[in-house]
Amino acid sequence: KTEEGKKNDLPPRIVLGPDGKPCKSCTAFSAWAKLPKKKATGATDPSSSSAPQDTVTPATLPPDCPPDVEALGRATWTFLHSMAATYPDSAPPEKQKEMSSFLRIFGNVYPCWVCAEDFRSWMAKDENKPVLTGREAMSRWMCRAHNEVNEKLGKPAFDCNKWEERWRTGRKG
Ligand code: FAD
Question: Can you tell which superkingdom this protein's organism belongs to (predicted)?
Answer without folding.
Answer: Eukaryota
